[in-house]
Every structure is written in structure tokens, then in C-alpha cells.
Amino acid sequence: MKKIVFVSIGSLEKYLYDALCIDSFLAEGKEVVFLDLSHWLFGEERTQRYDFVQSIGSGKDFEKAIREHLDDQTYFNIQIHYEDRFFTLFRLLKKFNCHLCRFEIGYLPEVSVANRAKNYITQPMDMLRRIKEKTLSFLARKLGLVKIDFDFIFYAGNVALEVASKKTHKAIAINYVDYEYYRQHAFGEKKSTRAEHKYIVFLDAYLAHHEDIKYNSTLKRLNSNEYINALNSFFRLLEKDLGLEVVIAIHPKANYAPDTFGNRKLVKNKTAELVFHSSLVISHHSTSISYAILGNKPIMLIYTSQMQEIYGLNIMPFMQVLSDEIKVPFINMDLVEELSIPDVSKMAYSEYKYKYLTSIESENRTNDEIITSFLKED
User: Fold this and answer.
1) What is the DSSP letter of 112?
2) 66 belongs to a structural domain
3) Non-local CB neighbours of 65 within 8 Å, separated by 6+ positions
């Protein structure tokens, strides 16, 4: 490998940069290119911070980019799952017989088939749409119209391994980026600025404004004011009952006014550090909950009545499954009257760790060591 071309949607933030181990490729002298398909696939331009990022505005632009970078030593890292709406993208990869790889990472507990069936029964048009998409996807794969087989896949956790094994014959175990960040703090590579404090941390998901909602036609936006007011009321109850301050670990893409959460501290890009030294973690449905699980921190998963109404058939079932899997309370903020710090199930946390975050093969190695070793053998 001389060059790796990442193909993705959205801004290349520091978190994704680290999750894709870009520094490891650069350190080994590999050329790195990142193709952002947001404009082509969703008609939106994304602000980018790295000079190796290229915005792709159309299918012709993507074909041009393939021709520009294509050779036997170039691998296209596809961070987009195949769906019928992305047919042209995967058809072009097939046309040019590109070498493909990907990072199979960031998995969370899945809703059962029975629960998904309930969703489709209550939304028949969505069910028909999904049947159409699945049928077209099956035919495209069966007829060999698209390229979805990968030369190799980096995977984090046993669930990701199951997925990767269906797409490649060469799966390499790595750690999810949350596990990497946790290890840095656990082994003292970074010093905390809040280690002497006891506090509660809320893992903000930027739920009322997150850009992912634009990409999913089944999701609607929350009433932002109602949502924020519910959070602040809940935070006041927490602070009163537990005698601890609430600190907000704001989402990397969030842009809140300083007084959005009252006088509470807003901290960006230090989520792992905040969780590592906290007394309690509260969240909705976020991969960042991994930090709390790895640190054996008490967790509350919270929601509002508005969320239950709007997301009762999509986000809420995922939150319930996560709550059940790691055995933590699932709390309606609008209805709760009294709060206490919940117990921790270390067995459930350990099972989660190996299902979604790391593996026995990779847990004692850094991703940099794993990627470097792979590239030297390649």
C-alpha cells in the first residue's frame, strides 16, 4: 500500500481522524486522501480542517477522483454502508475494480427483530420502502452490479467481527477509539485538569440539532427549547438529591450559547477525561458511553416525554436495549421525582467491552502498533 483514500460523509473531526488511525498511516509514509461525499449524496457542504480532504460534488467528480488516485497500491477505505440510494457509488467502485478496505467500528446493541417489526406495522409505508430497498440491494449484490467485498477490514469487538467476516477473508482486530482514549487516561498518559473534583457528567448528543437527522428520513427534530428546559430541570434535581455539580461534555459539532445549560460548565473535546474522573455519567444513546463502561462508572440513561413521542419507534428502542444490556436505569426526566446513584454491573460492563470495543487479540496493543505491524507485513 502506498496510498489510502478514505470515502465518507461529513466533516473529518478529530474523533473520526483518530478512529480511522490516520496518524498511523502518515507515520508509515502512506499518502492519505479523504473524499467527503456530503455534497454529492445530500447536497450539503461540510467545513473541513485538513488539507487532504476533497469535497465531491457529483458522481462525475467521484469517478474523476477514482481515476486520479487509482493504481495497484491504492486502497479505497469505504466508511459508508451499502444501501440502494448509494448504488452509483458502489457501482463505480465495481467499474474500476478498486481495492477496498474499511474500519468496522462503532457498533451498539441492536433492537430485536420483534421490536423492528412493531415499527414497520405502525408505519406501513416505511415498511414498504424498506422492503423495496432490501430487494434492490439483494439484486445488486446477487447480480454483481456493485463492489462490496473488501481486501481487508479492521474491526473492533466481536459484533463487528461477525459483520466483517461476511465481507472479507482478512479481518484485523483493533480497538475502538473510545478504548484507545480510555487507555491513555487509565495509564496516565494525559493528566486531568479536574481530577480533584467530584461531579456528574452529561454526555451531550446535540440531539435537537444533530446533522445525522438530515440523513435519516424517519427521524424528526425535537423542540429545542422544550428539550433543553427538561434537561436543566433534571440537572437541578440531580444536583439537589446527590449534592454534585453537573458538567456538560458537549458534542464536538455543538455550538451552544454559554448560558444554554444555566451556569453549568460546558467542556468540548475532553469527554474521556471528564468521564474518567466523574462520579456518575448520564446519557441518551451514544458510543461515548463506552468511557463510563470501561471506567466502571455508574450510568443513567435518560429521555423526555417528547423524545418518547417522537422517537418511540426508532431511537427509544435502541436506548432501552442499551439499558437492558448494561443493566442501568432508564429514566424519564419529566416524571422522576427522586434520584440516587445506581449500582454497577461489572459483568455486564465486561461483556459489553468485548462485544463492541476491543478483543482479546487487541486489548493489550495500541492501534498504532497494530496498524504499523500490518503495514510492514503488507
Assistant:
1) P
2) yes
3) 5, 35, 54, 56
> Identity (one letter) of the amino acid at 59?
G
Do 342 and 370 have their domain in common?
no
If asked whether residues 36 and 171 sit together in one domain, one would say yes
pLDDT of residue 147: 87
Find the radius of gyration of the CA atoms of the chain: 21
> What DSSP designation does 341 have?
P
The answer to whether the CB of 28 falls within 8 A of the CB of 372 is yes
What phi and psi, each to the nearest 5 degrees, are found at residue 135?
-65, -45
324 and 265 in a common domain? yes
Angle formed at CA 165 by CA 162 and CA 170, multiple of 5 degrees:
135
Condensed to tens digits (0 to 9), the pLDDT of residues 198-243 reads: 899 999 988 876 555 555 555 567 888 999 999 999 999 999 999 9
Q: Within 13 Å of residue 260, how many CA atoms lie on the same side as its CB?
A: 20
Q: Which residues contact 116 (CB under 8 A, 6 or more apart)?
A: none
Residue 227 shares a structural domain with residue 314:
yes
- Grid coordinates of 111: 433492537
For residue 108, the number of C-alpha atoms closer than 13 Å in the C-beta half-sphere is 18
| Residue ranges of the chain whose pLDDT lies below 50 | 193-195
Please indicate, yes or no, whether residues 23 and 166 belong to a single structural domain of this protein.
Answer: yes
